[in-house]
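Exercise 7. Predict the joint structure of the components listed below.
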Amino acid sequence: MATRTVDAVVIGAGTGGYPCAIRLGQLKQKVIIVEKDEVGGVCLNWGCIPSKALISASHTYEKTQGASAMGLVVENVRVDVNKLQDWKGGIVKKLTGGVRSLLKTNNAELITGTARITGPNTVEVTTREGQKETIETRAIVVATGATTIEIPGFKFDGKQIIGAKEGVSLREIPKRLLVIGGGVIGLELGTVYQKFGSELTVVEATPTLLPGTDPDLTAVVERKLVKHGAKIFKNAKALGYERNKDGSLAVKVDLGEGKHDTIVCDTVLVAVGMRPNSAGFGLEELGVKIDRGFVPSDLSGRTNVPSIYSVGDVAGQPMLAHKATKEGEVVAEIIAGHKAAKDWVSIPGVIFTDPEIATAGLSEAQAKERGIDVRIGKFPFSALGRAMAVMETDGFIKVVADKKTHELLGVHIVGPEASNLISEGALALEMHAFLEDIGLTIHPHPTLGEGMMEAAQHGLGHAIHIMNK
Ligand code: NAI
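Solution:
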């Protein structure tokens, strides 16, 4: 069995692991990154990127169908699902290929295989071809991500009972789609297939869709889903299903208060969350602390075993690619002996529904829970010329600030390009900006970004294009 000595072994080449390995390489650290599957992890292969490709295609499809209102005559718009999947696959391939070459050019050695931590400073790697190697290392970075949760009564069969992975790979548009879990994945993919023509039903266990998101924002998304024919059951649980003679599925749903319903559908997408991948590769044996499946780490990314670090989904909530990447970068700096810490003000979140939802910092409710006296500014997209010009006027921008000091505490957007607009809010929060900073900054006209300026001005009582309270 061969033995080598390196500075760091990164386990997992997802959006936490690969940026960590690249940065380690940039910092002249000898690094090996071990991945059992494809580089890029969930995000690049079947999460963020594939779903965003499908979301953009479904959005374009819907816009094209509605283009006559703009005076554009478009006839016979239809979806070629195979071509759509091939196009999506091409994007994924380009990105994963890019990651491979970035690892290589930064001297991070990629091993395709499985890693097992056998000591605080040793990792045993078994390559896909079955070769074993023991690596001595100064640091080990656990970046193993998370896996889709299955629920009783709905064992994945890869065809009709599916998770997100299959959900982004369908080569047929389901006529009737039932989504279990009205969270991020459920609503993003549910919206895609609804736009492509599926009859959509959502079964959500809690009283609200997208639990944890400001209900003011989710109401806008829910309204649009329902307007387009979606049936949404809240406080409801899917219990199990039977297969009908015609191949469709009859799903029994508990609606609470003793009521039940049966929903007939062709495909069930289960999207009830993800669980961290922390078991079975040596952490337990070494006494690394595991808390409800997560491998917690401190501000420098260290677990309770100082040579072992954790980043990304496996390290804790929120399970977001950009949080994983930043954690990976911080840990790389620490391993290289630099000063760094996970000390950001906010981790912005985006939900690619229609319209999009994007948030950074505290919500109104969270600020009030902390006993802060707040000042709210709100500006609707319906008052923006640019939003009218792109025919997307649903939603608003809401800013939450400290009533007395005017310091910005949170930005919450539901509307067109919310995903792109939120970065201004995130930067403002990191810089501890005040409403005046945003309100006095000249935002170019006509843009959706003006909504941010006007929302801040509204918070100060002097927005120009809407009435002030
Ligand atoms: P999620 O936690 O967002 O949503 C799961 C939903 O399922 C919740 O609303 C929950 O109340 C509900 N639920 C749980 N058990 C249920 C049951 N038995 N019956 C009905 N409803 C039930 O999880 P999701 O959507 O699976 O996403 C997984 C992770 O991936 C999340 O942590 C999310 O942050 C991340 N993600 C992020 C995206 C983004 O940033 N745009 C996109 C997709 C995923």
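Discussion. The mean pLDDT is 97.
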